[in-house]
Every structure is written in C-alpha cells, then in structure tokens.
Amino acid sequence: MRRLSIASLALLLVAGVAGCTNSLGAVRLDTIPDELASSSDLLDPQPTVAWDPDEDAWLILTYGSSSCPTEPREISETADSSFEITLETSGGPVCTADLGPTAYRVPAPVPRGTPVTIDLGPGTRITL
User: Fold this and answer.
1) Between 42 and 116, whose confidence is greater?
2) Where are the domains of the chain?
3) The whole model's pTM is what?
4) How many other CB atoms are there within 10 angstroms of residue 48's CB atom?
5) How confident is the model at residue 22, as a pLDDT?
6) What was the pLDDT predicted at 14?
7) Cα dist. 104→9, 46, 61, 77 in Å?
8) What is the rounded distance in angstroms from the CA atom of residue 37 to the CA atom of residue 80?
C-alpha cells in the first residue's frame, strides 16, 4: 500500500509540472507556440521572446534539461521600454542530461504591441 501511495504522489507531481506558475507569474506551456516555433533550433539553443497574440504577455523560449528547465524568474526595467529577464535553472540537484526547449507565458509589464527591447542574457537582446 505504501509503495502505491509513493507512486501515486510521484505521478501527480510529474503531471502537475506543465501549467505551473512561479512567483513571476510565468506559466510553463505544454507545447511550443507558433510564435516561437521558428526560433526553436537545437543546433543554436538561444532563448527568445515574442508577444503573445492574445494577451498582454510575452512568450519565452528557453533551453535546458527537461527535468530542470531554465525558467524566467525576474523582469527588471533597465531603461525606458527596455527590460531584462533573468533566467535561472529550476529543479533539484539531479537533472537529466538532455537538451530541449521549454516555453513560458509571462505577464508583460507593458500593453501588448508596445515597442520594447528585451535582454535575455549575454548576447541575447531582442526588439519586439
């Protein structure tokens, strides 16, 4: 009975990962949105961002371990219409050695369509 309870809990935890929200309000998506699909390149795995077509939100694509994905943790306004999004690895001390894309929806601090420049880390500045 105890083994069944542990297995059930593990299954619930795994099933609950997609769609989870972190403190930033970032929601991990089950699929890569069309707005980011053309940016999904495992030969050059750079994070990217696009406007969500339906909400005042940004869609962010990161790369990393599927068990410890890189996720958006903080948004800072660095200048007028310029933002920096801090990306950090989530998960525990043991991560799988795979490399894959993970998409998030993050509430944008400005209305959809506002011209902005977003810094996602060294060498990754994107103007929307």
Assistant:
1) 116
2) 19-127
3) 0.78
4) 21
5) 63
6) 39
7) 25, 15, 7, 19
8) 29
100-110 as b/e, with b when 16 or more CB fall inside 10 Å? ebbbbbbebee
Q: What does the chain come to in residues?
A: 128
Sign of CA dihedral 97, 101, 105, 109: positive
Stretch (H or E) spanning 3:
helix 2-15
Query: Are 97 and 88 spatial neighbours (Cβ–Cβ below 8 Å)?
Result: no
Between these two residues, 24 and 59, which has the higher pLDDT value?
Answer: 59
Tokens 């929601």: give the residue: 27
Facing residues of 50 across strands? 59
* Average pLDDT value for the chain: 84
51 and 58 Cβ atoms separated by less than 8 Å: yes
Tell me how far CA of residue 24 lies from CA of 48, 57, 85, 95, 105, in angstroms: 17, 12, 10, 23, 10
